[in-house]
């Protein structure tokens, strides 16, 4: 069965600090996709990144970076020099095949000024 | 705005009433998904369509729930005889999936249902 675990329920940091959100997944399939979504207070899920199981290269996009390690089944997300606008709930998700996403429980990130 | 839209954004109803939600996907997207999100949890898959065909339904989708996508464009999700446990955010997403290339799902703003 597929499962995504985000062990950090809530994280609170001061602006400009770096913060890492952890994601651990379980799947028996060799082909799968991993995602991160952001859910601001408005409620709409915003797509951040997709990574397939054959691409373990880390990715950086501005202040955001992602570390995918198949050996530990982890897909962690780091925000560098955090800003108040980064405050949101962040979800990690797994998709096997072409169908549904399986989401973790989310990490509520609060950036304090 | 060419994103996914949902209507209504909020719905308050009394237990036992029927409710219907609408989702308009991004126009060229052939796949449409419904998810349910309760407070403090991640979204949970309910069902999805490829064009007008409903290809998978979750066990969460009891017989009181029905979804349609009659012309392969917009979709409706109906809940009959609502129960307090149906209170949740109902999210719609769409994606463009062609010839084995699967793209990310884009989500709408959701419909928040409160059953009194």
Structure explained in plain terms:
The complex is a heterodimer of chains A (113) and B (116). Chain A contains no helices and 12 strands. Chain A has strands spanning 3-5, 10-14, 19-21, 24-26, 33-39, 46-52, 59-61, 64-69, 74-79, 88-95, 101-103, 107-112. Chain A starts with a strand and ends with a strand. Chain B is mainly beta. In chain B, 0% of the residues lie in helices and 52% in strands. Chain B contains no helices and 13 strands. The chains are: A mainly beta (113), B mainly beta (116). Chain A binds chain B through residues 4, 33, 35, 37, 42-47, 50, 91, 93, 95, 97-106, and chain B through 31, 33, 35, 40-45, 48, 55-56, 58, 89, 91, 93, 97, 100, 102, 104-110, 112.
**Average pLDDT of chain B:** 92
| Spatial gap, N to C terminus of chain A | 41 Å
Q: Report the strand count of chain B.
A: 13
Task: Estimate percent helicity of chain B.
Answer: under 10%
Radius of gyration from the alpha-carbon trace of chain A, in angstroms:
14 Å
- Overall outline of chain A: globular
N-to-C order of helices and strands of chain A? EEEEEEEEEEEE
Distance between the amino and carboxyl termini of chain B: 33 Å
Largest sheet of chain A: 6 strands, mixed
Q: What about the largest sheet of chain B? A: 7 strands, mixed
Rg of Cα set of chain B:
14 Å
Structural topology:
The complex is a heterodimer of chains A (113) and B (116).
Chain A lengths: L2 E3 L4 E5 L4 E3 L2 E3 L6 E7 L6 E7 L6 E3 L2 E6 L4 E6 L8 E8 L5 E3 L3 E6 L1
Parallel strand pairs in A: 2-12
Antiparallel strand pairs in A: 1-4, 3-9, 5-6, 5-10, 7-8, 8-9, 10-11, 10-12
Chain B lengths: L4 E3 L2 E4 L5 E6 L6 E7 L6 E7 L2 E5 L7 E4 L6 E5 L8 E8 L1 E2 L2 E2 L3 E2 L3 E5 L1
Parallel strand pairs in B: 2-13
Antiparallel strand pairs in B: 1-3, 3-8, 4-5, 4-9, 5-6, 7-8, 9-12, 9-13, 10-11
